[in-house]
């Protein structure tokens, strides 16, 4: 058993000694069977949060009404959740009512996919009533019970199916796939924030191309912000080898692929509720990519873009040309690093200098002179020294 589980095993034992059941559940058990690294473990128990509080001195209430409590144990915090069935998800987001149950099997029955419905006890024995381990072996994503029921309980599960397809490359079982095609509209009720989290995990998956195609083929795409008109363009992305792009670069590629204008791109990204900083980076990628498709990198564009956007743009450019992703990056970086200045603040003159030298009423002309100086330094026409710049600027602007 992995160390993460071994560390938590005594916690399970304590719960058992108090007369209850406790198991590892969810993604950690799935990833353990897959042989992947495990970040944290989730624990399911027959004890209620109140009963858990009586067993452990250090707990934190996080969602008692949903049966979840955090237990601090040997310096590590664990999410411990009471076995539960969630009857109805009236707004398709959160269960209206949580029914606590005393049986593990009932708890596992309300989970999304068979591979996510496996429990493991403290000794590493699996409790797997829905044959999740077999599904993992066969590389199949299959809902526990009827797919339509599971998706009606929480429509986000449809995106989770495609996200797991992207991360694991598993095929989606026939009935589950059919339900994805039939129930897509339920996603209208799901918050953008939840969709975004799944979509970005999907964009980071090893099988992202296939997953994007699946979103288009199943029609799920129609219920994702701003993407419904672009089915064909998204499907065409399967021709591009984009596996090494970062998430931000993936967004840039998508925006380029759907041929969206700069103005519309801002709206699109806001609709996805991305953080402002990320929106700015993606917009910049799109801007320089549009330019790069027509021109080689000019000094000014390299300077304006900055190192990160420069590299990101070139990587997307390479993907669009089916070239090796890091083609030319080294030489581009060498060029960038040899720029005399990397940002305007490095210019050895200020607006005040310019005003003192020219003795004119302040106005927009100062900014123009600074830009002139910046271009001259970048192009190697003058050295980035205060005196040299003074002499050069006065000579060039004699009248
Ligand atoms: N809409 C959901 C979300 C989660 N789960 C169940 O809750 C577990 C934990 O969910 P979560 O932590 O969101 O995802 P993981 O499956 O752990 O995957 P990952 O850690 O890769 O996000 C899942 O394995 C699954 O059993 C579910 O049934 N339905």
UniProtKB/TrEMBL annotation:
Binding-site positions, Mg(2+): 40, 42
Swiss-Prot/TrEMBL cofactor(s): Mg(2+)
Coiled coil ranges: none
Amino acids binding ATP: 27, 30, 111, 154, 157, 160, 163
Enzyme Commission identifier(s): 2.7.7.72
Pfam families linked to this entry: PolyA_pol, PolyA_pol_RNAbd, tRNA_NucTran2_2
Record: residues binding CTP: 27, 30, 111, 154, 157, 160, 163
Domain Poly A polymerase head: residue ranges: 22-141
Alphabetic keyword roster: ATP-binding, Magnesium, Metal-binding, Nucleotide-binding, Nucleotidyltransferase, RNA repair, RNA-binding, Transferase, tRNA processing
Enzymatic reactions: a tRNA precursor + 2 CTP + ATP = a tRNA with a 3' CCA end + 3 diphosphate; a tRNA with a 3' CCA end + 2 CTP + ATP = a tRNA with a 3' CCACCA end + 3 diphosphate
Residue stretches making up the CCA-adding enzyme C-terminal domain: 249-393
Molecular function terms, GO-annotated: ATP binding; CCA tRNA nucleotidyltransferase activity; magnesium ion binding; tRNA binding
Domain (tRNA nucleotidyltransferase/poly(A) polymerase RNA and SrmB- binding): residue spans on this chain: 169-229
Keyword Mitochondrion: no
GO biological process: RNA repair; tRNA 3'-terminal CCA addition
PANTHER family tied to this protein: CCA TRNA NUCLEOTIDYLTRANSFERASE 1, MITOCHONDRIAL
Additional note from the record: A single active site specifically recognizes both ATP and CTP and is responsible for their addition.
Family listed: Belongs to the tRNA nucleotidyltransferase/poly(A) polymerase family. Bacterial CCA-adding enzyme type 3 subfamily.
Role, per record: Catalyzes the addition and repair of the essential 3'-terminal CCA sequence in tRNAs without using a nucleic acid template. Adds these three nucleotides in the order of C, C, and A to the tRNA nucleotide-73, using CTP and ATP as substrates and producing inorganic pyrophosphate. tRNA 3'-terminal CCA addition is required both for tRNA processing and repair. Also involved in tRNA surveillance by mediating tandem CCA addition to generate a CCACCA at the 3' terminus of unstable tRNAs. While stable tRNAs receive only 3'-terminal CCA, unstable tRNAs are marked with CCACCA and rapidly degraded.
Oligomeric and partner information: Homodimer.
Full protein name: CCA-adding enzyme
Gene: cca
């Amino acid at each position: 058993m992995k160390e993460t589980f071994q560390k938590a095993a005594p916690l399970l034992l304590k719960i058992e000694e108090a007369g209850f059941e406790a198991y590892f559940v969810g993604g950690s058990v799935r990833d353990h069977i897959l042989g992947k690294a495990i970040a944290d473990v989730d624990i399911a128990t027959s004890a209620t949060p109140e009963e858990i509080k009586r067993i452990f001195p250090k707990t934190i209430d996080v969602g008692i009404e949903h049966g979840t409590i955090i237990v601090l144990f040997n310096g590590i915090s664990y999410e411990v959740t009471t076995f539960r069935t969630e009857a109805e998800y009236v707004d398709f987001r959160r269960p209206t009512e949580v029914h606590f149950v005393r049986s593990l099997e009932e708890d596992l029955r309300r989970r999304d996919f068979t591979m996510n419905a496996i429990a493991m006890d403290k000794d590493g024995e699996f409790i797997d009533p829905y044959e999740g381990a077999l599904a993992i072996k066969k590389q199949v994503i299959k809902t526990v019970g009827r797919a339509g029921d599971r998706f009606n309980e929480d429509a986000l599960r449809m995106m989770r199916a495609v996200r797991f397809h992207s991360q694991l490359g598993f095929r989606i079982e026939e009935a589950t796939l059919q339900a994805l095609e039939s129930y897509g509209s339920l996603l209208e009720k799901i918050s953008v924030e939840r969709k975004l989290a799944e979509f970005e995990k999907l964009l980071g998956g090893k099988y992202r191309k296939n997953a994007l195609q699946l979103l288009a083929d199943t029609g799920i795409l129609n219920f994702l912000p701003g993407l419904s008109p672009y089915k064909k363009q998204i499907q065409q992305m399967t021709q591009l080898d984009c596996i090494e792009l970062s998430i931000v670069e993936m967004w840039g590629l998508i925006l380029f692929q759907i041929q969206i204008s700069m103005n519309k791109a801002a709206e699109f990204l806001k609709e996805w509720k991305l953080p402002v900083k990320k929106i700015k980076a993606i917009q910049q990628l799109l801007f320089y990519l549009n330019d790069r498709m027509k021109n080689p990198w000019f000094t000014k564009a390299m300077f304006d873009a900055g190192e990160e956007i420069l590299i990101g743009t070139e990587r997307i450019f390479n993907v669009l040309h089916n070239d090796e992703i890091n083609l030319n990056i080294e030489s581009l970086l060498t060029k960038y690093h040899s720029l005399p200045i990397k940002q305007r603040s490095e210019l050895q003159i200020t607006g005040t200098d310019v005003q003192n030298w020219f003795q004119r009423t302040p106005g927009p002309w100062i900014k123009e002179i600074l830009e002139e100086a910046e271009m001259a330094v970048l192009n190697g026409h003058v050295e980035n020294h205060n005196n040299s710049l003074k002499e050069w600027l006065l000579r060039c602007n004699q009248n």
